Amino acid sequence: MSNAIFPTFPGLAWGVVKAPQFTTRIQRAASGRELRASLTAYPTYTIRLSFEFLRADEFQQLLGFFLARRGAWDSFLFTDPDDCQVTDYRIAAGDGNRNLFQLLRPCGSFIEPVENVNTITEVRVGGAAKVQGRDYTVTPTGILVFNPAPGPGQDVTWTGSYYYRCRFKDDSADFSKFMQQLWEFKKCELVGATGNKV
To answer: What is the pTM of this model?
Structure first.
């Protein structure tokens, strides 16, 4: 599991596909009645990117990144430009004893943990800004550790950005040269999550 960051290039097409996936075990009786068991609380996402053009140096950089990961073997960090930050998001309320709080992010009414922090711009407890290193620290898996614990009823909020932990979906990649010094990578598929699932 590496912390290498997936490179960004201007040739990324607008046709980005993001498909969440859960795992559900379904048992169907002869009567047609179903029993279902959800095996995952949080989804993994298949993210499909299409690079319409890559200049020679960008091609080399992306190819090198793929080779360094050995295809689907190693994970990396990916910034989804449309889903990578929160602003003053309420994590929970303090109770005077609890001092560990997992960073979270909303997706509509669904909330999932953030385990790969890019930046933390601000953390507030009861509306008062806290100082990292003095009032709290952050673990590598996105847990805020407060000293002292937030008081009863005090909301804990955070502002910042995060990564998806991803891997390439396949062990092979098709880069095509369509003009002198110009390449395309039409089917770049990643599998990932806001947590460390891959």
So the answer is: 0.89
